[in-house]
Amino acid sequence: MSLSKTVLAAASIWALAGAANAACELKSINVPSDGVVIRYDPFDQDETRVEVPIRLRADDCRDARFELAISPLVNSQGPGQTLRASDGSRTIDVRLLSQGGEARVVNNPINAFNSPAPAGRVTGAGTVSGQPLRVALTYGQVVAPGRYRAEATLFARVIDGDGRAGQPVETRFYVDVDVQPSFRLAAGVDRRLFLGELAEGVQSDPVNFNAFSNIGYDLSVRSYHDWRMTLNGSLRDEAPGVPYEVTLSGQTVSRSSSDAVVRFATPPQDGVRNHRLRAKALAFSPQPAGTYRDWITIEIKPRA
């Protein structure tokens, strides 16, 4: 009886040891079913980033490592480690970031884990430490407003404390990029239209500035003195003055009111258009000697 008890005890100890050394297994990985949506302004110089919420379902894999790899669908394959989102005709590239830098993006799923992939840690069954995956868009990808989609398969596996890798699991994953209408002006160095000694027909040198936009836009041009240069910039109606007109990118600006609109129906190529503003003195009666000036403001607005 004593020997029998010893054998049973030994068998029991062996079984427990075997269970303790079993590799942890990842059962499933979940990302938001409605995808990851990221709003993007192509002229915002700060990189746009959004975290991808990831939920794991696993056996007791506490403190195990996990690895992620992304395989884009054929029509979502971008250059390098990116996804290419499309609205059906235009495209925009989306970067994928892990805790350690660039995420692993592979066109062939067979290569998902043929070398160490960026890793994170499992802090408990179904929880992940840190931000294992983020999507990012870099400044300056100028495309028309709208929704752009990239689709991929997300692969994950866990590696236990002994370095043993479990079987990979996968889930469909997609990113929607909402490109926002965006428009702004950038003034040049010289902002003064100088006509020199006043005479009818004399013109200033042009002032240059840039419009940045991914849509058609209007430029609202406003004169503070109803298109008159007044003596010393006086605001008095009876102040001596010299009428003038301006041209904006070859279009004569209307003088019928102090506010005029110059329309540009098509978005600029590559998102930027250079504008030239020039002033010309019109016919005027003799005026007292002195400096005559007016102020002009230009505002960019989306097409109505």
User: Class of the largest domain in CATH?
Assistant: Mainly Beta
Which ranges are low-confidence, i.e. pLDDT below 50, for 5 or more consecutive residues? 1-21
Percentage beta strand: 35-45%
Q: What is the total tally of β strands?
A: 23
The CATH architecture of the largest domain: Sandwich
**Gyration radius, in Å:** 33 Å
Helix content range:
under 10%
Which H/E pattern describes the elements?
Answer: HEEEEEEEEEEEEEEEEEEEEEEE
Instruction: Tell me the number of helical segments per DSSP (H or I, 4 or more residues long).
Output: 1
- The CATH topology label of the largest domain is Immunoglobulin-like
Cα end-to-end separation: 96 Å
Largest sheet, described in full? 7 strands, antiparallel
Structural class: mainly beta
Number of domains: 2
Gross morphology: rod-shaped
Mean pLDDT: 85
